[in-house]
Amino acid sequence: MTYHDYLMTMKRVGIAELKSRLSEHLRSVRRGQPITVMDRDTPVARIVPCETPASALVIRPPRRDAPKPGRVPLPPALPVKQDIVRLLLEERQAGR
After folding, report:
1. pTM for the complete prediction?
2. Which helix (H) or strand (E) holds 85?
3. Burial of 26 (0-12, 13-18, 19+ CB in 10 A)
4. Which has fewest Cβ within 10 Å: 12, 20, 27, 94?
């Protein structure tokens, strides 16, 4: 991060540099230093620290009347006149 008087400029990182040293850059972001991701000379993304810490996540137990995980009712099947599996296989074969 570079400081000029009271102005602050973000650190700029190319995509290849970000990929090769991702953990290091994420540690920098965790310390509060935002990063601008550049594709050649064009900014494409900004990585900034999260506003709330991960410890703010609250895990609570399920309600007493909640169904067991294996007993959750499935929604009714949609009335489709085509064979979905056949369409999926055709799409996958077309991509080869």
Report:
1. 0.47
2. helix 84-94
3. middle
4. 94
